[in-house]
Design brief:
Strand order of the largest sheet: 1-2-3-7-6
Number of helices: 13
Order of helices and strands: HHEHHHHEHEEEHEHEHHHH
Shape: globular
Largest sheet: 5 strands, parallel
CATH topology of the largest domain: Rossmann fold
Bound molecules: thiamine diphosphate, magnesium ion
Strand content: 5-15%
Length: 327
Amino acid sequence: MLLAGELRRTMYRDMVLTRCFDEQATALQRQGKLALWAPSLGQEAAQVGSAHAAGEHDWIQPSYRDHGVLQARGVALTDVLALFRGSDHGGWDAERHRVQLYTLVVGAQVLHAVGYAMGLALDGVPGAVIVYLGDGATSQGEVSEALVWAASCKAPVLFFIQNNGWAISTPTATQAAVPLARRGEGFGVGGSQVDGNDVSACYSATRAALERIHAGGGPEIIEAVTYRLGPHTTSDDPSSYRPKAEEAAWQERDPIALARAALEGDGLADEGFFAAASSAGAALAAAARERCARPETLALRQCFDHVYATDHPLVAEELADLVGAQA
Ligand SMILES: Cc1ncc(C[n+]2csc(CCOP(=O)(O)OP(=O)(O)O)c2C)c(N)n1
Ligand SMILES: [Mg+2]
């Protein structure tokens, strides 16, 4: 599929904005302004390309390092900082952007996504759900359960696996003896592999899968083969478990450099465009610093909000214990 120049330029810009923001957020964590940060470094093409393929009726169920997905979907990236500062349960309006909040419990979001997709179908409303999960998450029991439900109910859901090579220090080879694109076969969920560092390929594969899903074809898997160029989170040091040569080889396939070369090769962007993208990235990084300049806190009792939709005696008891312990 040959993509329009405008779309390719937009996706390139979103990748640059995501990269600048992500690098700034990593630095802010090092300065003690964030409790933790999970970098998206290296995965921008998989995230931005797939999210741009989603239509206005589609819902996104992200994991926790999908900053490029948020950027492509129009969520202000500075809003995600609140979660990583511990000052908010989420950070953005999920309904407005049709982007659910981040889930840090590995794999849990996949069952939520399938349930949501079943709900869309039962309500007879248009749209599908794209759920983002990692290679490691595929080993979680919930993901197998989710595949059963999705296949049995022909739920309109796309499982978008970012195979970034690692689940903290566990390599993908430990998660699966066959490609993750085939993980759904026994469940009746077909899949395909895409070059996760090629933003146009990610867009096209996702768009095609969503068209089939919208037409009632049932769930699918896309495995985007990419690489986590940075640490798992700011609490991790990958030099203790993965070879430098592997990182260097993937650095050669930096998705932003690849997208830039493709735009230049096709005569679709000039120096002015690339300079403007960099300036926009610098402005977003400045906005991130500004956002972290003021202290923001969450009242202790708010930590217990939203555990259940209604009051629950166990939650009330735990809150009372903690407040008592702090007194
Ligand atoms: C249920 C659960 N078990 C363990 C963890 C700790 N943990 C956080 S991320 C992670 C690895 C996930 O790897 P993967 O699914 O490949 O995603 P990636 O971090 O590479 O994007 C683990 C084990 C967790 N958050 N939740
Ligand atoms: Mg991974």
